[in-house]
Design goal:
- The longest helix has 14 residues, at 101-114.
- The chain folds into two domains: 2-75, Ubiquitin-like (UB roll), CATH 3.10.20; 76-163, DNA polymerase, domain 1, CATH 1.10.150.120.
- The chain is globular, with a radius of gyration of 15 Å.
- It contains six helices and five strands; from the N terminus they run E-E-H-E-E-E-H-H-H-H-H.
- Helix content is 36%, strand content 12%.
- By secondary structure, it is α+β, with helices and mostly antiparallel strands.
- Strands 2-1-5-3-4 form a five-stranded mixed sheet, sandwiched between helices.
- The structure holds FE2/S2 (inorganic) cluster (FES) (2 copies).
- One FE2/S2 (inorganic) cluster binds next to loops.
């Protein structure tokens, strides 16, 4: 039995060290906003934050989460940058089928935390590992640029929850 911290909440979970973090979060904790795509770190659908860094949870063993803080799409509503991005996602009509969008938002949030004023090349570089079969890349880039220009980018977690719930709910479907 181990305890892992997801979105600020400790969870006890009994899985082998090499069990993928994605399985723990989706199948054992019921947080289904994060999606399974390729299972090989190639598509980005399973992106979460591990101590603020975007990781591919399909290939990250649960043992890597010991003592670390995990954030999933369900926790993004507690993050001011995440809130701003989710609002921009709606404003720019980014999602199509929606399957990739949780991962896209997690990568975009990590980008703006580390680089609040990214160039177009910075955005393309940071988002290049997140595949969208619906081809929403142009709107993703525009939404990120919008948030960066708004001044909301780079803010630390801890803002009021709520604004991101709609996107998280859609992603969980
Ligand atoms: S499901 Fe993890 S990168 Fe594709
Ligand atoms: S919105 Fe359909 S895969 Fe990205």
């Amino acid at each position: 039995m181990r305890t892992i911290t997801i979105n600020g909440q400790p969870h006890s979970i009994d899985l082998p060290d090499d069990a993928p973090l994605l399985w723990a979060v989706r199948d054992h904790l019921g947080l289904t906003g994060t999606k399974f795509g390729c299972g090989m770190a190639l598509c980005g659908a399973c992106t979460m934050h591990l101590d603020g860094q975007p990781i591919r949870s399909c290939v990250t063993p649960i043992s890597a989460a010991d003592g670390k803080k995990i954030t999933t799409i369900e926790g993004l509503s507690a993050d001011k940058t995440g809130q701003a991005l989710q609002a921009a996602w709606e404003e720019f009509g980014v999602p199509q089928c929606g399957y990739c969008q949780a991962g896209q938002l997690m990568s975009a949030t990590a980008l703006l935390h580390s680089n609040p004023h990214p160039t177009e090349a910075d955005i393309d570089g940071a988002m290049s590992g997140n595949i969208c079969r619906c081809g929403t890349y142009t709107r993703i880039r525009a939404a990120i640029q919008h948030v960066a220009k708004s001044g909301a980018a780079g803010a630390k977690p801890g803002a009021k929850p709520g604004a991101g719930k709609a996107a998280a709910k859609r992603s969980a479907q």
